[in-house]
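Readers outside the structure-tokenisation community will struggle with the description of the input data as it stands. For illustration, here is how one protein appears when written out as sequence plus structure tokens:
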Amino acid sequence: ICRSPTAEGVFRKLATAEAPDLALHVDSAGTHAYHIGKPPDQRAQRAAERRGVSLAALRAR
């Protein structure tokens, strides 16, 4: 569940840590419009938070 936002969050954290001066635009999008405007699944958010990755600002498009 929520692979796309999880991948975005993890990549954003790694890129910021490894190359803080590099200007990157990180984005993700699903392939279906089931949950437009909704945040990632709470289980995915909790799993990411346990690893120091916040998905709180992400919304489905």
